[in-house]
Design a protein that fits this description.
Layout lengths: L10 H5 L8 H5 L23 H23 L10 H6 L6 H22 L10 H11 L2 H14 L4 E7 L5 E7 L10 E7 L6 H4 L3 H8 L5 H12 L1
Antiparallel strand pairs: 1-2, 1-3
Helix pairs in contact: 3-5, 6-7, 6-10, 7-9
Length: 234
């Protein structure tokens, strides 16, 4: 998430401009069958950093697959079928064993990708607002936090995600999870995450994950990340 020489542009005033609805609430407040959220931009909008074909397959095939499998798991399970997805993941230890792993895998995949699409935008933006201040304070400098995040994303073994989260003590943490495990299952709220499964980058970058991470840093939507942070801190 490396963005050098950023300006925290009047963060107190700006904070009030970005109290947008967290993407986590898009599905969390719904008790209907889960649905694939539309992208907030065209499939080719993130080029040249993330290519159109990867976005099409990632969204229409991979994310849709998680939604389909999640619905199949919960459709006839009265214990969880009425629950918002965020509640399922936060209360995963109470979910019946016969559907728990399906919710971890497919529910986590649905939640993770829903956030992922929202924290990118064409051209990206500069770190700003309260989240930029908090990164500075938590990790010593924005660059130090950025380098920690990037290193973890570039070196994480196997499939998974790297996250910037607000933990149960309202503090920022950076860590990785395997497969489609969600920070929600730890009681944490993810505000920024990068997908390091090969399907997220292999068509364009092959085995060059580090190049993908560097490119992804250029399309981060920091306005949305700041909104996510403000929502998590309430």
């Amino acid at each position: 998430m490396n963005r050098r020489n950023f300006l925290i542009q009047g963060s107190t005033a700006l904070a009030g401009l970005f109290v947008a609805q967290s993407p986590l609430r898009v599905y969390a407040d719904s008790q209907e069958i889960q649905k694939l959220p539309p992208l907030p931009y065209a499939y080719d909008a993130l080029e040249p950093h993330i290519d159109k074909r990867t976005m099409e397959i990632h969204h229409r095939k991979h994310h849709q697959g998680y939604v389909n499998k999640l619905n199949a798991a919960i459709r006839h399970n009265h214990d969880v079928g009425h629950m918002p997805l965020e509640a399922m993941l936060r209360g995963i230890e109470k979910v019946p064993m016969n559907v728990r792993q399906a919710i971890i895998n497919s529910g986590g995949g649905h939640a993770n990708h829903t956030l992922f699409w929202s924290i990118m935008k064409p051209g990206g933006s500069e770190p700003m607002g309260k989240v930029a201040e908090s990164i500075q304070l938590t990790f010593g400098s924005f660059d130090a936090g950025s380098e920690m995040f990037d290193k973890l994303a570039k070196t994480h073994f196997g499939s998974g995600w790297v996250w910037l989260v607000v933990d149960e003590n309202k503090k920022l943490q950076i860590y990785a999870t395997s497969n489609q495990d969600s920070p929600l299952m730890k009681g944490h709220t993810p505000i920024l995450g990068v997908d390091v499964w090969e399907h997220a980058y292999y068509l364009k970058y092959q085995n060059r994950r580090a190049d993908y991470i560097d490119a992804w840093g250029k399309v981060i939507n920091w306005e949305q990340v700041n909104a996510n942070y403000l929502a998590a801190m309430k």
